[in-house]
Structures are given as structure tokens and as C-alpha cells.
From TrEMBL:
GO terms for cellular component: mitochondrion. The gene is PDP1. This is [Pyruvate dehydrogenase [acetyl-transferring]]-phosphatase 1, mitochondrial. Heterodimer of a catalytic (PDP1) and a regulatory (PDPR) subunit. The lineage of its organism: Eukaryota, Metazoa, Chordata, Craniata, Vertebrata. Residues 109-525 form the PPM-type phosphatase domain. Keywords: Acetylation, Calcium, Hydrolase, Magnesium, Metal-binding, Mitochondrion, Protein phosphatase, Pyruvate, Transit peptide. It comes from Hipposideros armiger (Great Himalayan leaf-nosed bat). It is an enzyme of class 3 (hydrolase). It comes from the Eukaryota. It catalyses: O-phospho-L-seryl-[pyruvate dehydrogenase E1 alpha subunit] + H2O = L-seryl-[pyruvate dehydrogenase E1 alpha subunit] + phosphate.
């Protein structure tokens, strides 16, 4: 498995390209490595360890390399046209509108918009959305991969099935198992809502199905058959933990098929965070593992917008997470379990799927690597043991589940990977989406944030404001509109086409230095249906 790009590509902001080129070096893994003091290590998901220093060596006459790639210390006068910008921004957008009558009842969800903008090549983020067919409700989720996209891809394909099975009553589980035993067609569990780029792995489908079947067989054995209300929170937690356990077990057992054997190992040694929402009537559950976020957009009586956070980041900025980690390990590890705001000084999120390097014992890691394929055995990253690694596991995939009862003023939910939250404040995110959905942004006064603005600059802001109306109409997708602002906003909070064009023109080698992958799902709620639920009670 290739070494993770994040080891060598820190995310930098507002930095001149000339500062980067002066520190270029050549990497044997075909990446351009940057170790400039201008690049903050705090933006890396993984912090480089001295063990990785052997990967890179200064390239002789590196300036010829950058010149050959036509990089220059002075900006090139090349900008994308508005149609070209729109083509890039809209390439991965997807929208789904829930039918007025969804077959069982009137849905509290009107529909959703989703989109992705890559920074990594290939993109490491994933997204999923599906309607539960044998139970009620809709599932939506974003998944942020690191050390590659293998784990986020697997989780995006599999997690909703584990959740759906966890929510099924005992009788339905028996019916599904009997159908498999007799070779009859299975009841469909999920109706997926996918963009054509959101693919499923056909090669691993049988392996994934067998693991899922084992899970529902165990649920059948554990359930007495008595009819009882299923606890959604417990079902979400069990599904997350079981899938992560299956990812680990599949990598330990291996597979006779060499392709599958390498795939399950790549999935296990890479990692992914997950933020998933389950909406059933007025009952909204958010299960979060890692540092993606769920934000509720609330419209106040005066028409203004406020943001309600429905998830907590699992990282060093969360005091409760720090305390949890320290309590799970001996006191003599209190200073080493989290160093430089990272798990064992390396990993930024404190909860994630995969990442068996932070979960398995050293002996198990060595045994699996030595018996694995040559690609794994020859890779320095997989053989590397984190420092101060004494009492694993240090990482868990157990989610933190938040419950919220929807109200008529709750208009939408934003699920997004940290690529969005690194660039925009939550209040700005909710305001921009709210104004987009209602078209009321024209009534807001222009805020200059304490800047001294000349008459000419104010004229320019008013001109941009007039043009902003056409921007709203050119975006038919709320997630696309949000990405446009995340990448192209200037200091006044308006989209600067020149800035947007520059950011989208960056070559693959440089894009990851300026921002992360961005994946967004905007779920719009039906206020009339939500209000009707309240009136019934």
C-alpha cells in the first residue's frame, strides 16, 4: 500500500507558491514532498515520524523539475471561465427529492443535495444515502478517509447495511435468513440514492455479504423473538462497532483470492471517520466517529439563522475525549498517549474505522504483515509501529450518538467532512444554506467586518451582491452552493471568482496543500409534516 499522501502534503492556507518551491524534494513514492517551516504540521492528519525520513531525499537540480512543470514564483495569469468553474463544481453533485407519499407515510424529509470536491487524487472522502425499506426512516452519511481511500470506500458501502440489519425486527431477520437458506430472492433492505461516481466493489460483494449474514445470524440467536421496540441509539452503536470488528477480522483471516486478500488489508491499515444521520419522522439520530460534523439549521422567528451542533469532534480539542483516552490506559502513559494534539503523536482523530496500527498488538501486526502479500510486506508504513505503543487498542470506532426531536423551525441538516469546517464557521455555513433555500439573502445588510472600505470598494461589493443573485440561480444544488463559498469566499464573505478560479486551477500536487477533500450533504426537512407530528401529540 502506498504511503499516505497526508504524510507529505500538509494543508497550508494563504501561502505564496514561491515559499513552497524553495523546499521541494523528490519522493520515491512519486509525490512532491514539502517540509517548509511555512507549512503548519497541525493541518496534517498524520504527522511525519522520523521513520519516514528515508522515504525522501533532496532531488538534484530540483529547480529544473519545478521549471519543467511550469511552476513559477510569480502567479500565472490564467483563470478558469465561469462555465469551466461550474463544470468542476457540479461534476459530483447529486439531488434526491422524496415523493410526496413515500409508500408508508408522509416523510419529514423533503429531499437532500450532496456534492464532493476532491483535493486528494484520488479523493479519500465518500458519501452515502439510502431509504430503509423494511423499517422506517432515511440514512445519510459522510466518510473521511486517511492513509488512502480503501477504508472510507468499504465503510460507505457496508455501514448502512449493518445499521439496517440492526434495526430489523426478529421476524424479518428470520425471513431473510430462511430466504438465503432456501435460495429464494431476498427482501430488499435499502434503496440507495447514488451519484454514478459512488461505486460499489463487485469483487468484495460476496465477502461483505457473508460477514453481514454472520452478524444477522448472531442477532437472531441473541433475540428471544419477543416483540420489543428497537433502541435506535443502541442499534447505531452496535452497527459501527460490528463493522469495524469485521474489517479487522477479515484482514487477520485473509482470503485465498490474492486481490481480495490485498484489498481487506488495505481497508484495515487505512482509516476513516464517519458521521451518519438516521431520520425517522421527527426523530433525528446522529452517530459520529471522528471529526466530521452534523449541523442543524434553525430559522428563528425574525427570519435569522442559527446553528445547532449535533456532533462532537473526537480530537484533542475535545476535553472529554482526552480524559477518556487517559482513563483507558495506565497513568504512566498519560503524557505519551496524546502528544502534539495527536494520538500517540501521529493521528488527529481519536475515533475511526480501520487504522489497525492503533488497535492490534505488535505481535499480531507483525504476523499479518509477514504472511501478507509482498506489496504489504515491502511497505515501510505498514511495518512501522507507533511510538510508545504499550497497551493497545488506542483507537475505537464506537460512535457518539446524539438525539434531537425535530421542530418546525428546524429547516435543514448539514453533514460534512472536516474539509468544510476547516474553511468556514458553522454560523456562516448555516446562514449561506438558509439564504440559498429561502432566497432571502438580498435583505441582509452588507457587513465589512471593521475593514476600512473606500467608495469604490463598496461599489464593487454592491455589484458582487447583484451578481450573487445569478450565482444562486446557477447553483441548483445547496451543497454545490456551499462548496462555491467554501473555496471562493473573500474577506467580506462573498464569492470572488478570481480566487475561486485560482483554487480550482491548482494541479493535483498542490491542491492538497491548500485544502482538504470536501464532502457535503444538505438534508431539507418538511416543516409542515414536522408540525403535524407535534399537533398529533
Amino acid at each position: 500500500m502506498p504511503a499516505p499522501t497526508q504524510l507529505f502534503f500538509p494543508l497550508i492556507r494563504n501561502c505564496e507558491l514561491s515559499r513552497i518551491y524553495g523546499t521541494a524534494c523528490y519522493c520515491h513514492h512519486k509525490h512532491l514532498c514539502c517540509s517548509s517551516s511555512y507549512i503548519p504540521q497541525s493541518r496534517l492528519r498524520y504527522t511525519p515520524h522520523p521513520a519516514y525520513a528515508t522515504f525522501c531525499r533532496p532531488k538534484e537540480n530540483w529547480w529544473q523539475y519545478t521549471q519543467g512543470r511550469r511552476y513559477a514564483s510569480t502567479p500565472q495569469k490564467f483563470y478558469l471561465t465561469p462555465p469551466q468553474v461550474n463544470s468542476i463544481l457540479k461534476a459530483n453533485e447529486y439531488s434526491f427529492k422524496v415523493p410526496e407519499f413515500d409508500g408508508k407515510n408522509v416523510s419529514s424529509v423533503l429531499g437532500f443535495d450532496s456534492n464532493q470536491l476532491p483535493a486528494n487524487a484520488p479523493i479519500e472522502d465518500r458519501r452515502s444515502a439510502a431509504t430503509c425499506l423494511q423499517t422506517r426512516g432515511m440514512l445519510l452519511g459522510v466518510f473521511d478517509g486517511h492513509a488512502g481511500c480503501a477504508c472510507s470506500q468499504a465503510v460507505s458501502e457496508r455501514l448502512f447495511y449493518y445499521i439496517a440489519v440492526s434495526l430489523l425486527p426478529h421476524e424479518t431477520l428470520l425471513e431473510i435468513e430462511n430466504a438465503v437458506e432456501s435460495g429464494r430472492a431476498l427482501l430488499p433492505i435499502l434503496q440507495w440514492h447514488k451519484h454514478p461516481n459512488d461505486y460499489f466493489s463487485k469483487e468484495a460483494s460476496k465477502l461483505y455479504f457473508n460477514s453481514l449474514r454472520t452478524y444477522w445470524q448472531e442477532l437472531i440467536d441473541l433475540n428471544t423473538g419477543e416483540s420489543a421496540d428497537i433502541d435506535v441509539k443502541e442499534a447505531l452503536i452496535n452497527a459501527f462497532k460490528r463493522l469495524d470488528n469485521d474489517i479487522s477480522l477479515e484482514a487477520q483471516v485473509g482470503d485465498p483470492n490474492s486481490f481480495l486478500n490485498y484489498l481487506v488489508l488495505r481497508v484495515a491499515f487505512s482509516g476513516a471517520t464517519a458521521c451518519v444521520a438516521h431520520v425517522d419522522g421527527v426523530d433525528l439520530h446522529v452517530a459520529n466517529t471522528g471529526d466530521s460534523r452534523a449541523m442543524l439549521g434553525v430559522q428563528e422567528e425574525d427570519g435569522s439563522w442559527s446553528a445547532v451542533t449535533l456532533s462532537n469532534d473526537h480530537n484533542a480539542q475535545n476535553e472529554r475525549e482526552l480524559e477518556r483516552l487517559k482513563l483507558e490506559h495506565p497513568k504512566n502513559e498519560a503524557k505519551s498517549v496524546v502528544k502534539q494534539d495527536r494520538l500517540l503523536g501521529l493521528l488527529m482523530p481519536f475515533r475511526a474505522f480501520g487504522d489497525v496500527k492503533f488497535k492490534w498488538s505488535i505481535d499480531l501486526q507483525k504476523r499479518v504483515i509477514e504472511s501478507g502479500p509482498d506489496q504489504l510486506n515491502d511497505n515501510e508504513y505498514t511495518k512501522f509501529i507507533p511510538p510508545n505503543y504499550h497497551t493497545p487498542p488506542y483507537l475505537t470506532a464506537e460512535p457518539e450518538v446524539t438525539y434531537h426531536r425535530l421542530r418546525p423551525q428546524d429547516k435543514f441538516l448539514v453533514l460534512a467532512t472536516d474539509g468544510l469546517w476547516e474553511t468556514m464557521h458553522r454560523q456562516d455555513v448555516v446562514r449561506i444554506v438558509g439564504e440559498y433555500l429561502t432566497g432571502m439573502h438580498r435583505q441582509q445588510p452588507i457587513a465589512v467586518g471593521g475593514y476600512k472600505v473606500t467608495l469604490g470598494q463598496m461599489h464593487g461589493l454592491l455589484t458582487e451582491r447583484r451578481a450573487k443573485m445569478s450565482s444562486v440561480f446557477e447553483d441548483q444544488n445547496a451543497a454545490t452552493h456551499l462548496i462555491r463559498h467554501a473555496v471562493g469566499n473573500n474577506e467580506f464573505g462573498t464569492v470572488d471568482h478570481e480566487r475561486l478560479s485560482k483554487m480550482l486551477s491548482l494541479p493535483e500536487e498542490l491542491a492538497r496543500m491548500y485544502r482538504d477533500d470536501i464532502t457535503i450533504i444538505v438534508v431539507q426537512f418538511n416543516s409542515h409534516v414536522v408540525g403535524a407530528y407535534q399537533n398529533q401529540e
